[in-house]
Write a structure and sequence with these properties.
420 residues, GMP Synthetase, Chain A, domain 3, Rossmann fold, four-stranded mixed beta sheet, globular, alpha/beta
Length: 420
């Protein structure tokens, strides 16, 4: 089965596409009653950096019943499906998609399979949540276009985790897809069930929808005995960037999305390699919701030079650092979520955890709910005290307790601030 992935042949071609399609993006945004008030008059190249960034909180301020009429630029009769957006917190948003949008969004995901070297000889077990959130069905539908077998399990709420392990054992998929946290949960469950997941048929893993640290990657690869590929996207766009064979980093589909990395304070572009706030403008799948300079809430670094040997080698590179809101401030100490996760997962005795901060008697407390293979809480208390100079409250939980809560969420909240 042949799929036309429309790979650009050079960086020059990508830049020409961006030049033309940025103008189209602005023209479409000017048709939106909400967005047209934000765009200064003038040539696109001259006013681009003056266009205010668009955030999820701004869109949440639009009443849901008025969102289509105020933000969208085609009538409801042109909607073919809705995509859910929303992280672990805040009211989810539901974006309509036109047939034109879907053509380009699906192509982005079709490239994802080529990126990891998947072929019709593969079978993919898909454990992303199945529902209005699009990621699971976009991977599945585009896998079929490549002739790749699919097992549409969804997350634990769609198909119980014990059944998922049975299906991996019986159907012999070669690729597993899901959130890294759920991949670790399946590995922990397999361990308790006596199922040797590292010797299963799965040889490649695609993870997305949450940051992947080196420690979490190693934990996944060891537990599954498989090669992990990190993919990055957003409902406001589609599949935006992904890791491919060679593991050079995240290749950005820069012919489909115009990516900026900006200084958080000044709003000015940062140099290659510097960390800044990620801003994305869809160049093609914007015929219904014309997102313009979307602030994703991620801190990243950017390299204009591509790497690798495949057709994706012409694309620039992205490195995901962390979410902009990914930290707790406890008694004056900033505790980065990713650093806390890495610290705990480096301990091979830690199976899973959830972190909460609350404020009894006006005294901040970092509360860690931890599942361990053996041992007590003292080692965890000492570890966190040594790294963050904060003494946590640690509660040990029976194996599998946290996973039951995680399975019920589209994006599980591993870090919860209960201080209001």
């Amino acid at each position: 089965m042949t799929v036309d992935l429309r790979w650009p042949k050079s960086q020059r071609e990508i830049l020409e596409i961006q030049r033309k399609r940025k103008r189209v993006a602005v023209e479409r945004a000017l048709q939106s009653p909400y967005l047209k008030k934000r765009i200064p008059k003038g040539r696109v190249e001259e006013v681009w950096l003056k266009i205010p960034l668009l955030t999820k909180e701004e869109l949440r301020a639009i009443p849901p019943e008025r969102f289509h009429d105020e933000f969208c630029i085609q009538p409801r009769s042109k909607v073919v499906e809705y995509w859910r957006s929303g992280g672990a917190t805040g009211r989810p948003l539901f974006y309509p998609r036109s047939a034109e949008d879907m053509e380009h969004g699906l192509r982005a995901f079709e490239r994802a399979w080529a990126l990891i070297g998947a072929t019709a000889d593969d079978c993919a077990h898909i454990s992303f949540p199945l529902g209005v959130h699009p990621v699971a069905h976009l991977y599945a539908r585009t896998a079929i276009n490549h002739g790749i077998g699919t097992v549409w399990c969804g997350a634990g709420t769609n198909t119980p985790s014990e059944v998922q392990l049975e299906l991996i054992d019986h159907l012999k998929p070669t690729i597993w897809l899901g959130m890294a946290s759920y991949g670790l949960h399946l590995a922990n469950l397999a361990e308790t069930k006596g199922f040797d997941l590292a010797s299963s048929s799965v040889k490649k893993i695609i993870v997305a929808a949450e940051p992947l640290s080196p420690v979490k990657r190693q934990k996944l690869e060891t537990a599954w005995g498989a090669e992990v590929f990190d993919h990055f996207g957003m409902t406001e766009g589609a599949f935006v960037a992904g890791e491919g064979v060679g593991h050079h980093g995240l290749h950005i589909w820069a012919d489909q999305f115009y990516v900026e990395v900006l200084d958080e304070k000044s709003g000015e572009p940062v140099p290659d390699g510097a960390v800044g706030s990620l801003v994305v403008t869809p160049l093609w799948n914007n015929s219904m919701t014309p997102f313009l300079r979307w602030s994703s809430g991620d801190l990243v670094s950017f390299s204009s030079e591509g790497i690798g040997d495949g057709p994706w080698s012409v694309f620039p590179m992205l490195k995901h650092e962390r979410r902009t809101l990914g930290f707790f401030k406890v008694r004056g100490v900033n505790i980065n979520h990713a650093e806390l996760e890495d610290a705990l997962f480096r301990d091979p005795d830690v199976v899973d955890f959830r972190a909460e901060v609350y404020n009894p008697d006006d005294n901040d407390v970092l509360h860690l709910l931890v599942e361990k293979r053996s041992g007590g809480s003292e080692g965890t208390v000492d570890l966190i005290r040594k790294i963050f100079q904060i003494t946590p409250q640690v509660t040990l939980l029976p194996r599998g307790t946290i996973a039951k809560d995680f399975e019920a969420a589209v994006k599980p909240a591993r870090f919860v601030d209960k201080r209001g």
